[in-house]
Amino acid sequence: MDNSPTALFENYDDDLKQLVSSLKGKLDGDVQTLRGEPRKAALKKVSDDLDEAEEIISQMELEIPSMPVSLRKNFQERLATSKASVDKVTKQVRDLRASTQREELLAGAGGWSDDPYTDDDPSAFSARTRLLAGTEMLSTSSQRLDNAHRVALETEDVGADILRNLRGQREQIEHTRDTLTGADASIDRAAGTLKKMIHKMYQQKVVTGAIIAVLVLLIILVLWSKIRG
User: Fold this and answer.
1) DSSP secondary structure string for all residues of 95-159
2) How do residues 54-78 score in pLDDT, each as one tens digit?
3) Which of the 8 DSSP states describes residue 64?
4) 228 in helix, strand or coil?
């Protein structure tokens, strides 16, 4: 089995495409026909599957820094496309949830009167007020979710940049370590050569001293022989 970063990315990407396709089919088909609690349960199941999709995207992001530099740009673009497809499904889920809550508010209010702006029916006006308040609250919550999602995406980008920087620093450290190892080997060789030169120098000194001693002894013998003669 090929466990290279590119192969793992491809496998994650295939799994994500199948999951997103399945979720779109549910949202465009079964969920649209459901109402009330059944629709809520179906949306809950889709949300759980979206958590799995986010996990797959996280795994894909982890593989990119390990790829050769020449391939990263292409896979980063594919990752961005995959994120966009998941974001569309997430937005569709939020819209359906908001629609479900509006329907529940309408059902709880007993529906609209023929003239929703009339003040003749206090209950209708009250229902309209509650519905507007609920709609505004949903809109605010949706904006908060969008902001949170945007911050999460920015955090992911920062994390990916940090991983790339750490990988680059690790490569620099490994290169420095290799250079130091080579320098250490060169120093060892130089030290060995220096020891040999010192040893030869001592040998030469000993030989030179022996020659001088012999010459001095010969001179003494010559002088001694002349004195005796």
Assistant:
1) HHHHHHHHHHHHHHHT---SSTT-SS-HHHHHHHHHHHHHHHHHHHHHHHHHHHHHHHHHHHHHH
2) 999 999 999 999 999 999 999 999 9
3) G
4) helix
* DSSP one-letter string for 73-94: HHHHHHHHHHHHHHHHHHHHHH
Q: Which amino acid is at 214?
A: V
pTM assigned to the model? 0.47
pLDDT in tens, 21-30: 999 998 988 8
CA distance 163 to 157: 10
Q: Hey, where are the domains in the chain? A: 5-182
Which value, in Å, is the radius of gyration of the alpha carbons in the chain?
42
Closest CA to 219 of 125, 167, 227, 73: 227
pLDDT tens by residue, 88-103: 999 999 999 988 888 8
Q: What is the C-alpha separation between 18 and 58, in angstroms, rounded?
A: 17
Are 35 and 82 in contact, with CB atoms under 8 Å apart?
A: no
